[in-house]
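seq:
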Amino acid sequence: MPAVPADVRPRELVRLGGHTMGTTWSVRVAVPVGHDLHALHAALQVPLDRVIAQMSTWVSDSDLCRFNRAAPGTWHPLPDEFAKVMRCALRIAQATDGVFDPTCGALVQAWGFGAGGGTPGVPSQARLAAARARPGWRQLAWQTDEQDILLQPGDVQLDLSAIAKGYAVDLVLDTLQARGLPDALVEVGGELAGRGRKPDGTPWRVLVETGSDEDALLPPRVLALDHAAVATSGDRWHRFDQAGRRYAHTLDPRRGHPVEHTAAAVTVLGKSAMEADAWATALTVMGPEAGLAFARAHGLAARFVVRGRQGVEEHLSPGFEAALAP
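struct:
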């Protein structure tokens, strides 16, 4: 692709936004004065719509839903973006021994959190057992020739909700880059990534979420994002209460149940929003103690906000601490 000619007009900071994947998206981007914002908005919606068309569990004719309905033993060509996300998801599944599991769709539905799952609630033992008995990520197989082809071994239910929004952030940034707009901060459903600088030369600075109603007790944590992304997972978002007990939407695929004693928030800083999104979920499932140990051992920049006996506490990996903006 030929390089986009440099635009020498002065730049201004503009904000664009809209709806996608059941949530909102927003972009703050440095553009030449007088830039056609209507055309730019339309161009940014295109990759977001493509993620839905390929990976949504809510759109019945998406590539992912068609795969989930497919007959056992059939092979399915994947669009390039779908294949890229699946490869990343399976790498993290392998690295975490299934703590992160892109084949947890039936389990998500059983608890009522996903498309077609109904009202969130504790499932019957029979329904839970049936969901857990389905083949998992280890039974998936690939063929690669001119296109990636994925095997449906039978009844595998993919769910990429814990990684697709992050990937959408990366796609929007790539779209801006291709249009000669390399300086931007992009957010989709709370997942963030930034490249370049504001028109005044300062970095994109974001305040890290705590996920706690007691966040005033913690020092504000600010990150400067330049070719970096940040994602946060926790129990404040998407949960339900039943019989006096709270159930978070983050499921532990190993147990088939929502994560217990989940952190109020787990934040991961990474090079791509796709990876940060997935790792935030994986570390949440591991729990504060094991998750922080994993982050330290594998060089992940992570922050855990937990509710301790003395109130809200935070625990930072060395990588996260080093990345904090002064």
